[in-house]
Every structure is written in C-alpha cells, then in structure tokens.
Amino acid sequence: MNKKIVVTGAILILISIVLGAFGAHALKEVLLPAELASFETGVRYQMYHGLALLAIGLNTNAIGFPLKWVFNIILVGVILFSGSIYGLSLDALMQLKFSFLGPITPLGGLLMIIGWTILIVQLIRSKK
What we know:
The protein is mainly alpha-helical. The chain is built from six helices and no strands.
C-alpha cells in the first residue's frame, strides 16, 4: 500500500462529495443548467480519479513499479481539469473573471490522459 496515494485519493473523494452536495443543493437554484452540468462534470471526474487513485494506492505491492510520476501527473491533471471547471462554472455567480481558466481545462485533461497512458505502458512492461 502507498499511504500517500490512498490518502490523496480519499481526499479527492471527500472533496467531490462535498462539492457534489454543494452543487446539487446550493448551486441548483443560482446557476444556469449548462453551468451546473459543467460543475457536475468536474465533480464526476474528480470522483472517478479519486476512486482510481485509491485502488492504485491500495495495490502498489501488486503493481511492482514506482508510481511517483503517474500519481503526480494524474493529480495535477485532476486539479487543473476539475478546478478550472469549478472556476469557469462559478464565474458569473462570483462576478470574477475566470475566463483565463478556459485553456487550463484541456491541459488538465491531457495530463490525466498522459498519466493513465504511462500507467498502462508500465503495466504492460512490468515483469509482475
């Protein structure tokens, strides 16, 4: 088990539950349907990756290779992807200019794709 990965996965899950409840209850009445749908997409991706990191972290002994790069790339990807979606979704409500976050979302998505690709390649190459 890799405690750092497991704890991080659990934290991502916890935050996504809190933000999901916040979106479903507090934001439902104040965001446009498209903004709420975007917010929920950020929550969903954060939850998926939290669960995946939890599973990976609990099974590091079976994986058989270091996960530092995979973990870091996926974590930064989730933060950039979901975080930018949260900011963009709440832009009008908070009366702030988060439009600069627009290009950050695909960068976060790309980092998640790269992280999972590295994991897949490493799993294929692994002797375990």
